TrEMBL record:
Name the UniProt record assigns to this protein: peptide chain release factor N(5)-glutamine methyltransferase
Highest taxon, organism lineage: Bacteria
Domain Release factor glutamine methyltransferase N-terminal: 26-79
MF term (GO), any: nucleic acid binding
Keyword match Transferase: yes
Organism per entry: Vicingus serpentipes
Methyltransferase is among the record's keywords: yes
Catalysis: reaction(s): L-glutaminyl-[peptide chain release factor] + S-adenosyl-L-methionine = N(5)-methyl-L-glutaminyl-[peptide chain release factor] + S-adenosyl-L-homocysteine + H(+)
Pfam families: MTS, PrmC_N
Sorted UniProt keywords: Methyltransferase, S-adenosyl-L-methionine, Transferase
Annotated ranges, domain Methyltransferase small: 114-201
Enzyme Commission identifier(s): 2.1.1.297
Length: 286
């Protein structure tokens, strides 16, 4: 067991993990970890470098390091992750929220100022609909997922963040008809879009822990979900309603072509903060 000063804890954390992660990544992971467990920020390390912790607190670090050696992502070790400044519970039934999805949410918020009905398809942890509702309480927000376990987590997250979102179990691939009484102003989805052939290029901590159901599609059908959701949206969007997708960076033009072939207008391909094709939006004008 390491000594109980914050300096010793940092040395232990980095020395134990330096053969598993890059140095710059380890620094970031350490500060995220002590902030989560001890509410100890980076500035506190400078102000109180000799801060000491109890044995039970040290054990949290030791168990965390053990999990990190096995490749388990910090989000699953903590059981939650921050998204758009909100705490979002996660487990291995839900994807870990990504910064790219924050960009998707930000675009919707900027372009949907009125009271609107919004549907999120394939909601996972519920981070998209919960954030939209938290940022604009005038929104009426609905979300669906095929996974019962993911919906349990999403419901917990709505309660945690004190917002009202209607969650329902629904499989868009088996039923493209609506289960709702109303139409929507906005339909958004971050569906599975990674071809199975991409697995060889992906990190083990993603492959070993995150739900493949939410990640992968067959190599010969990379746009499977976009096709189904676009068909659903044609029936269930209001006139002038908008469709928003997060996409695979390599299928931007193909996704645009698909959406336009379905009769949507004003289709746009939007790059993320890293300059990669990441978002497609379009409008249904009847």
């Amino acid at each position: 067991m390491p000594e109980n000063s914050i300096r010793a804890i940092k040395t232990y954390f980095i020395n134990e993990l330096n053969s598993f992660y890059e140095q710059s990544e380890l620094e970031s992971m350490f500060y995220i970890t002590v902030a989560h467990y001890f509410n100890f920020e980076k500035k506190d390390f400078i102000l109180t470098p000799d801060k000491r912790f109890s044995e039970s607190e040290l054990l949290k670090i030791i168990y965390c390091v053990k999990d990190l050696k096995n490749g388990k992502p910090l989000a699953y070790i903590f059981g939650e992750w921050e998204f758009f400044g909100l705490p979002i519970k996660v487990n291995e039934s839900t994807l870990i929220p990504r910064p790219e999805t924050e960009e998707l949410v930000d675009i919707i918020l900027k372009e949907s100022n009125q009271v609107v009905d919004i549907l999120d398809i394939g909601t996972g942890s519920g981070c998209i609909p919960i954030t939209l509702k938290k940022q604009n309480n005038n929104y009426q927000v609905f979300a669906v997922d095929v996974s019962k376990e993911a919906l349990k987590v999403a419901t917990q997250n709505a309660q945690l963040n004190e917002v009202e979102v209607t969650f329902l179990e629904y499989d868009i691939l088996k039923n493209r008809n609506s289960i709702f009484q109303q139409q929507f102003d906005v339909i958004v989805s971050n569906p599975p879009y990674i071809p199975g052939s991409d697995k060889t290029e992906m990190a083990n901590n993603v492959l070993d822990f995150e739900p493949h159901l939410a990640l992968f599609v067959a190599n010969h059908e990379p746009l499977l979900f976009y096709d189904a959701i676009a068909d659903f949206a044609k029936i269930n969007l209001k006139n002038n309603g908008k469709l928003y997708f997060e996409i695979h960076e390599n299928y931007g033009n193909e996704t645009l072509d698909l959406i336009e072939s379905k009769g949507f207008s004003d289709a746009r391909l939007i790059k993320d903060i890293n300059g990669k094709n990441r978002i497609v939006s379009a409008q249904l004008i009847n």
